[in-house]
Amino acid sequence: MDDKSGSGASWRRLDPQGWPRRVTFEHFRHFDRPHFGVCTRLDVGALLTAKAALGAGGLTIAYHHAALHAANEVEAMRMRLAGDEVRVHEAVYGSTTVLLGDESITFASLAWHRDFAAFHADASRALAAARRGETPLDPGADDDAQVHFTVLPWFDFTSFTHARPRAGGDSIPKIAFGRIVAGADGRHTMAVAVEVHHALVDGLHVGRFVQAMQRRLDDAPFWATP
Fold first, then answer.
1. What pTM was computed for the model?
2. Strand 93-99 with 105-110, pairing
3. Is residue 202 within 8 Å of residue 194, measured between CB atoms?
4. Architecture of domain 34-223
5. Nearest partner of 12 among 93, 82, 88, judged by Cα
6. What is the pLDDT of residues 123-159, one digit of tens each?
7. Which residues, other chains included, contact 7 with Cβ-Cβ below 8 Å and sequence gap of 6+?
8. Which of 14, 72, 134, 170 could form a disulfide with 129 if both were Cys (CB 3.0 to 4.6 A apart)?
9. Domain extent listing, the chain
10. DSSP strand pairing (11-13 vs 85-89)
């Protein structure tokens, strides 16, 4: 897996021979609505403990990094449809929504780095450029080596659906982050909604993604050293 990924990331074609999911793939890929989504809650206590060390905007950058870390760990989250074939990207990066001063939105591309300090530096620059209006609304639209993110810090939620193009070929995973809330038990959690293409991803894979993201969120020493 590449240490850094942006547009033009390399990929390999999946050989369908011997792929255990081949029948499942053929079953779901022609559905009019082939996507499914789940919403869960993840513990962000370690992030909040490290909030000061993360710096301005670091909390948001950190949970994007945790999600990309998990997506790159789970192969199914790196699979994309390309006509009749399946491509497996070596690494995927992020594209996230950015709220502008006039209350419109744009997108910022987040290059993938395993190293959080490098990711934090790149993401900070990308987000600042987006807020200055220096990026188009749809950067990297023709590059599917990405995961689409959206952030809704104003409210908590228990379900979420994403806008998708009319053609059913969009196989890019889409992830939404909600408001961080404190529970009666004192734990701080955040709603995370994951939407995927069922021809490529099953509930098992989403479960692995969620578990991998939680492991990264729990890694307090990691977040203490941005």
1. 0.92
2. antiparallel
3. no
4. 2-Layer Sandwich (3.30)
5. 88
6. 999 999 999 988 877 756 568 999 999 999 999 999 9
7. 109, 140, 143, 145
8. 134
9. 34-223
10. antiparallel
